[in-house]
Amino acid sequence: MTRADQQTVFIANRGEIALRIIRACRRLGLRVVCGYSEADRGAPYLDLADAAICIGPAPASKSYLNIPAVIQAARLLGADLVHPGYGFLSENAGFAEAVTAAGMRLIGPSADVMRRMGDKVEAKAAMIAAGVPCVPGPDSTLPKDPAAIAAIAEEIGYPVILKAAGGGGGRGMRIVRDPAALAEACMLTRQEAERFFGNPDIYMEKFLQRPRHVEIQILADAHGTALWLGDRDCSMQRRHQKLIEEAPAPGIDRALIAEIGARCAASCREIGYVGAGTFEFLYEDGQFYFIEMNTRIQVEHPVTELVTGLDIVALQIDVALGAALPLSQDQVASAGHAIECRINAEDPESFSPSPGRVTGLHLPGGPGIRVETHIVAGAEVSAHYDSMIAKVIAHGATREEALSRACTALAELRIDGVRCNATLHAALLADPGFVAGGVSIHHFEQWLAAQEKADV
Ligand code: ADP
Predict the structure, then answer these.
(1) Is 177 tagged catalytic?
(2) What's the predicted TM-score (pTM) here?
(3) Does residue 3 have a pLDDT over 80?
(4) Does residue 124 line the site of ligand 1, with CB under 6 A?
């Protein structure tokens, strides 16, 4: 008897990550079922599942974000476990509770842990307690009294950044460079926090001028083992949205990363974290500063899979099934370098989405190339969802080899019928700043501004 005979995984997600989870379930011999929206009806990846059911109309609020519809579909299809993927309901503690209340298990941490780490102020307090360094600023929400707020800002030193305690997705943040602008900035950020996240609490921290975004992947089981699986650099961003990710982060002292990684793993053991997760940091002048934890699988997990040789999604499902992690920290290896380019169906210059029918498709291959996509020729790219349609990931023995393989793969990629940003990626991979390694989170926007200047 194997657990495979008994367990069914319901995927509460769509697109490339749904396909990634289907593949992991197949590998584990599990039954796997999907919920889909009317816009995704007939998508080829659904044929790879054992069963699939419509959960509602195209708008995510009526389907992928509709908790009662998702729970009902999972029950109808006989699910024991629910995989939330990323985005949608993946960090919604109310959903985690609903899954448990319906007698199923969420592939992820408990609702309590998710709620605690989803509140950025609480997460920061937990990290400080675990000895993880954070961005300077109090580990509490701001008081109402303007004089008290001004005193906090003076103590931190300008510029400061205001952030929504319940925030996410790059929203509900405001930089304040000048004391005169503080009161109004607080008011506006509180209003945004209330509107976007239903929680007006905000907090303040030092605004770092030229940081890099470096994160640590962790994986923890229910038996007290928590491992860190290495680091990723995701500094290439536009409007706080990641565009290129790589592992490991170039040019950072490995001993320092190992120390931070060990602290992240220790804090997982302390808070009783089970599942895959990511600790996000800003890195500046040789120092790490924790900013937030993501309590789910991330888009960029494949770069870590390629350098460690681990199947993080399969391990994530395994630990949700109650298995102990099959390796110890000293068995976590890292070989070579990996780079991921997020291919979006959008205009490479204006960044406006380019939905429509994919009329022709050629995906790259060859040594060290992995492509994650649910798209096939004839597929419809819906305007209702995120524009990311594929991830091209390259692995090499060195960073140079990974870069060179990524360039060859991007040149080979052909997507007809919709516009995509492959040419933008090709230009970025040839940018001397990026090639040198270690760019800041502002690099891409500065690069764009320089291109625009050169064009006039
Ligand atoms: P979200 O949850 O909305 O993604 P984060 O707290 O992870 O918000 O921050 C998103 C991005 O905002 C970071 O990757 C970084 O680019 C920028 N950022 C956040 N905090 C700071 C800070 N203290 N100083 C400078 N930049 C910051």
Answers:
(1) no
(2) 0.95
(3) no
(4) no
